[in-house]
Design brief:
Blueprint (H helix, E strand, L loop, with lengths): L13 H20 L5 E10 L5 E12 L3 E3 L5 H7 L2 H23 L4 E6 L1 H5 L3 H11 L7 E6 L8 H13 L2 E7 L8 H4 L4 E4 L1 H4 L6 H16 L3 E4 L5 H9 L4 E2 L8 E2 H12 L1
Parallel strand pairs: 2-4, 4-5, 5-6, 6-7, 7-8, 8-9
Antiparallel strand pairs: 1-2, 1-9, 1-10, 2-3
Helix pairs in contact: 3-5, 3-11
The protein binds ligand C2E and calcium ion (CA) (3 copies).
């Protein structure tokens, strides 16, 4: 295409132009979203399979823009990562999550844990650990109340920095979870070197767990491996009773999914808490 000189512009189709225009528009909207207070957190409970008790609550980001409506994170987190906007957005998420945990404590009189997703760019930012600590202390929240969910993909690089940051966070007392476990194609050796507390089995493994024998066997093996390593195991994407029953029977510690509750906006989650815990 290089030899074509100026005719190479022909490859820039109207459709692509449309796409990049849309992207630019989205980027400029995203830049203003924080000041316009367009973000909100939805909350999904993570329960003990054996008792049905609430263990922690995952904070899931939503972007509510007047033009675009409610946008799910998969549609804007990649752009936020590329532009670095994920750093101020992520700080907002931590602050909001800590504040929510405090409100729930006032409401129920119990300590309720909160789980927050961390993307690679955020994690590698030199100010990250400091900003997590700051959000905790501003909100007077003990570090053990907070769990950071880090995607397995981030561990692929196997770098010394990654290990250092994880150890630093572990020393601070926050809990660490591997998110999307089983999708990162990483060597499992990281599991013995890094200070994780929890493995979250990706929902793609849970989907067929009661349909296919192999899927069931795989999840059973992951549960057993996690337990041999002293890790808590969570299943995500549990969306029916049969899956829930299977996971309980196989000793999977925690579960999350539409079967128990969809992610709820703050007001609805507060109602959920009242119904289950007051
Ligand atoms: P994730 O961390 O794997 O989050 C679980 C996703 O599964 C959520 O999608 C949740 O709504 C969805 N889910 C929950 N239960 C079920 C179920 O039973 N069946 C199915 N099919 N799906 C279920 P969501 O909220 O669209 O979030 C997508 C991803 O965006 C998250 O995946 C996470 O990686 C990322 N994300 C969300 N919030 C944040 C955030 O505050 N910061 C960062 N960096 N990433 C975030
Ligand atoms: Ca997650
Ligand atoms: Ca720890
Ligand atoms: Ca996942």
């Amino acid at each position: 295409a290089k030899r074509q000189g100026k005719s190479s512009y022909a490859h820039f189709t109207p459709e692509m132009h449309e796409q990049s225009h849309e992207r630019l528009q989205m980027e400029s909207r995203l830049r203003r979203a924080l000041e316009l207070e367009e973000f909100e957190l939805h909350f999904q409970p993570i329960l003990e399979t054996a008792t049905g008790q609430l263990r922690t609550v995952e904070a899931l980001l939503r972007w509510n823009n007047p033009v675009m409506g409610m946008t799910l994170p998969d549609r804007f987190i990649p752009l936020a990562e590329e532009t670095g906007l994920i750093i101020p957005i992520g700080e907002w998420v931590f602050e909001e999550a800590c504040r929510a945990a405090n409100r729930w404590k006032l409401l129920t009189g119990r300590d309720i844990d909160i789980s927050v997703n961390v993307s690679p760019r955020q994690f590698r930012d030199p100010r990250f650990t400091g900003s997590v600590k700051a959000a905790l202390s501003r909100n007077d929240l003990a570090p053990e109340r907070l769990e950071l969910e880090i995607t397995e993909r981030l561990l692929l690089d196997n770098s010394i920095e990654t290990a250092d940051i994880l150890r630093q966070l572990d020393r601070e007392g926050v809990r660490l979870a591997v998110d999307d476990f089983g999708t990162g194609y990483s060597a499992l050796s990281y599991l013995k070197g890094y200070p994780f507390d929890t493995l979250k089995i990706d929902k793609s493994f849970i989907h067929d767990v009661t349909q296919e024998q192999e899927a069931g066997a795989l999840v059973r093996a992951i549960i057993n491996m996690a337990h041999s390593l002293g890790l808590t195991i969570t299943a995500e994407g549990v969306d029916d009773a049969l899956q829930a029953e299977f996971l309980k029977k196989e000793g999977c510690d925690l579960a999350q999914g539409y079967f128990y509750s969809v992610p709820l906006p703050d007001r609805d989650f507060t109602e959920w808490l009242k119904i289950h815990y007051l």
